[in-house]
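Archive maintenance. Older records in this collection stored only the sequence; we are now back-filling the structure field for every entry so that each record is complete. The fields below show one back-filled record exactly as it appears after the update. Entries are processed alphabetically, and UMF1 family MFS transporter is next in the queue.

ARCHIVE ENTRY
Title: UMF1 family MFS transporter
Organism field: Propionicimonas paludicola
Length field: 446
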Amino acid sequence: MRSTPEQRSWYWYDWANSAYITTTATVLIGPYLTHLANNAAGCTDLADGQVCTTPVQLLGFLPVLPGALPSFVSTISTVISAVLLLFVGAAADRSAHPHRWLGGSAWIGALAGCAMFFLSGDNWQLGVWLMIIGAFSFGASTVVYDSILVRIAGPDERDRVSSRGWALGYAGGGLLLAINFAVITFNKQLGLDSEMAVRICLLSAGVWWAAFTLIPFLGLRRLPREVSKEAAEGNPLSQLIGTFRVLRKYPQTMMFLLAFLFYNDGIQTVIFASSQYASGELGMAQSNVLMTFLLTQVVALFGALIFGRFAARYGAKRTVLGGIVIWLAVVVVGFLLPAGNFGALLGLGAAIGLVMGGTQALSRSMYSQLIPIGREAEFFSFYQAMERGTSWLGTLAFGLVFQFAQSYRLALIALAVFFVVGGFLLTRVNMRKGITDAGNALPAVF
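Back-filled structure field:
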């Protein structure tokens, strides 16, 4: 089935933001922020496998080991986002031009990403604030982006459209990551020290995000909708309170959100912490870590499309449950992975890529079937508070285990709980009842 012009424009926002998520949020900023914090703590001569045991003061009062700093920052940014994104959703639903919210929030996040170029020496505090701004802006833009899916695709199209968006995102993220891999690998030949190479790569992700956001911003501008005078002049806080009341009428939607909270936090934390795990626990060089993530991106592109085909045949719920089982196996294998074995790391990266895009793309389309028409952005703000880049329970657990055990292996295996609990809760979701309760048409396969 051919995509409509609006669907093709919509796909490009995945291309735009995935470069930031892949290059900055997933691969570079965690280890680089730890490096800056190590400098501030005086731990500049660590041997491979060693961790800095001198804490830095997060927010001026919280002692945190440098190795746990990125996880705690991610948790803080999510707590902030979880509250503020609800208001973004309420406001976006009151707007006749949601593409303006998409573009505005994306460009604020891209500006924060570009500003990461100025991180150097021991200036980890600026990195903390830029991570928080970038995470919130990404979440705000994606609340609007996800809600537009309901307007451009019918019930039988959403698995396909959502999967294609994710696939294009992995293509874009993988392309920029390949370029940045070359910059970091050949930094000396380019006349750059290692720190400057990372800073240029961080800048490139922000510029990429800003530039390609123009395509969906312009392509979706013809999707204005009529908003009632009552809604336009209404109080966003009152509307938000009303959404909480409405949500209680949809128990299957609430059950899905609870399941998603657990298994997606596991997914997001594995993605977020994988570069730290590979470099800090397995002793991999940064070039090897980048190569692994590049392979993951390539496999994820095809994985998202493959999962979309499986969903068309077996239903999205069954396909996602199968993906959760594979994620659980990834955590167990990762825990047992020997240090220094690059081939094994590549194999694990390929397994992650196979399920990464598919489980997330299908979760988005499943949820779109469970929300009432007219309140898409509000309901997706609940979803986004637990979606990629804003997970908090998993990163908190990972950071706490490392803080007290000083072991990335134990921190990783602790994430198995999230997949077990999330998978169990997802089996309890009755999709047929949830779709009909929300007043939506049943797709052919669900």
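Update note: The beta strands are 56-58, 62-64. The chain has one domain: 10-437.
Entry marked complete.
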